[in-house]
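Entry:
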Amino acid sequence: MPDAITLKEDVTLKHQPNLGEEVADVEVEAGTELQVLQEWEHHYLVKDDEGKLFNVQKDLADPA
């Protein structure tokens, strides 16, 4: 599992700040590096610099 990934293209990711709160669309630019917390077959669970958690498809990311 890589420590971080870099996004290949601009993407809109879903973020839910806390359970019960509304899910928000977050625009993330190509080249953004995200810390990898977990890896699955087709996705990574990542965290940005603000602590927001996202699921990112592996085909959208290059290991950093």
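The CA atoms of residues 16 and 23 lie 4 Å apart.
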